[in-house]
Amino acid sequence: MDLLFYKDAYLKSCEAHVTFTENGTIRLDQSIFYPTGGGQPGDSGWIELENGEKITVIEAKKGESHEDVVLHLEEGASLPAVGTKLTSHLDWDRRHAHMKIHSCLHLLCASVVGDVTGGQISAQKGRLDFNLPDTAIDKIALEEKINQLIEEDHAIAMNWITDEELDNNPSMVRTMSVKPPRGSGKIRLVKIGEDVDLQPCGGTHVKSTGEIGKIKIGKVENKGKQNRRINLTFAD
User: Fold this and answer.
1) Which residues, listed in sequence order, are joined to residue 189 by a DSSP beta bridge?
2) What Cα–Cα distance (Å) separates residue 37 from each residue in 41, 119, 181, 202?
3) Domain locations along the chain
4) Which among 121, 136, 196, 203 is least buried, having the fewest CB atoms inside 10 angstroms?
């Protein structure tokens, strides 16, 4: 399967062919739909057949491998036959919000010294959990720092390294609970600015930090002896 969201996260629609159908799900030969993973929800949207019929895509999920995307369709939908040509359409507003929150969580990760133990993304907010025993978080200072990085409009670029290169630089991985997808021989890196942040990530991101918009730091919660959960949301 050709994962188009890796090549262009701003692609909102594309033509594709059905390669497999089963129990309310289909696979396509190429996908603009990002599947649930790494704390980021799977994309939703719809597929449009050549006769104009539209079928809602409830959620995209990973299949048997990290390069396999399965689309879960609305309940009761008639499954198009294998070989059917169709057009995929993203719920773009939802996906774009995920991209902004995900990129902002990388800025949060770069602004807090501590290993990440968990995280979650939605269209309105996001959070990261950090291994920070006996550490006080200055919410105001953290919010100002992240908004400064957003205002500076740092470029966000995608690069690739080999599994071996990552093995030789294990400190690149900040997340303790989520590991970058492996198996293809290469690892995707997300780089923000010249030296703001660099870490493996399989999610979708905006092109620059300025696209995120102003954010607010919400609750800072204690989740056990060591975990500190930091929540953020859009200011508007």
Assistant:
1) 159, 200
2) 7, 11, 10, 8
3) 2-90, 99-234
4) 136
Sign of CA dihedral 102, 107, 111, 115: positive
Q: Evaluate whether 17 touches 83 at the Cβ level (below 8 Å).
A: yes
- How large is the C-alpha radius of gyration of the chain? 19
Pick one of 3.40.190.10, 3.60.21.10, 3.30.980.10, 2.60.120.10 as the CATH number of 99-234. 3.30.980.10
Q: Cβ(176)–Cβ(199) under 8 Å?
A: no
% of the chain exceeding 90 in pLDDT: 74
State which H helix or E strand residue 74 sits in: none
Contact 173, 180 (CB under 8 A): yes
CA distance 203 to 9: 9
- Domain 2-90, CATH: 2.40.30.130
- Assess contact for 69 and 63: CB atoms under 8 A: yes
Is the CB of residue 99 less than 8 Å from the CB of residue 204? yes
Instruction: Return the sign of the alpha-carbon dihedral for residues 138, 139, 144, 146.
Output: positive
Q: What is the pLDDT of residues 37-90, one digit of tens each?
A: 889 999 999 999 999 999 999 999 998 877 899 999 999 999 999 999 999 999
User: Can you give the pLDDT at residue 73?
Assistant: 97
Whether residue 28 contacts residue 70, with contact meaning beta carbons closer than 8 Å, is answered with no
Q: What is the dihedral of CA 179, 72, 14, 203, to 10 degrees?
A: -20
In tens, the pLDDT along 215-228 reads 999 999 988 777 89
